[in-house]
Amino acid sequence: MSANNLIAQQIEDLGARTFSTAEMACFLLSILHPRIIRSVHSEPIWADLRGGVQRLSNMSEVSRKARQSIDRISGIKRLISKEVALDSQATSLKTTGVESHSINANILAKHKLQMPAPVDQSRLKHLPKLQDMLDLDKIVVITGYGEVGPYGHAETRWEMEAFGELSVEGCIELAWIMGLIRHFNGVHPATDKHYVGWVDAKSNDPVSDIQIKLRYKKYIFEHTGGRLIEPELANGYSPINNYVMREIQLEHDMAPFETSLDAAQAYK
Asked: Is the pTM of this model over 0.70?
């Protein structure tokens, strides 16, 4: 039972009572008192040492959540401890004059995926009441939605509407969508070293996150937003070559005019 000592406080917060090894040993020895032994000969004695744990519903779920909470908090404290140790080491190197080793690290973009929060299980308890009310084979289910427009998706479009400028993350997403870059994970043929990051789609050269905006910004702005249709990107289609037919109504006779034979045949 020593494995449950970590979650003893969480169990007591729910109204139950837990006992240490010494306390439980004391209770068990007290049952062996001579007076109690003499009483047992006349009637059975019921000793409840559960501390009210039996009243807790779904004890396994309570235990699992308590352990997950402890693991999460300990993980955060462990990372903070490492960060403090690294800060202390860097500070001591500067103050003691010890030569430090520089690390070439590229600045990475900070992508944020705005995912909706999952629905709590308690909000779905009423759904069983709807069972067999509808034919599920004829129900349309929308599992997701998205936005595709001249500026990519909703986040990149909002950047242009709100700020008139794309962020580094926005340029990376549009450059990837437009096929200018692709993600690479493996041994790069140019350096024979393992590389993880973006590479140019044509030259296969590594491109850092910061360089993507400087390198592809002009091309991205020329090929996004409200603009004329580009024939090279639309299988040769050009709106300039479209013929528009318009119906007109003549309220009086047309004056005589001269035209070619082909045009005169078209007016018949």
From this structure: no
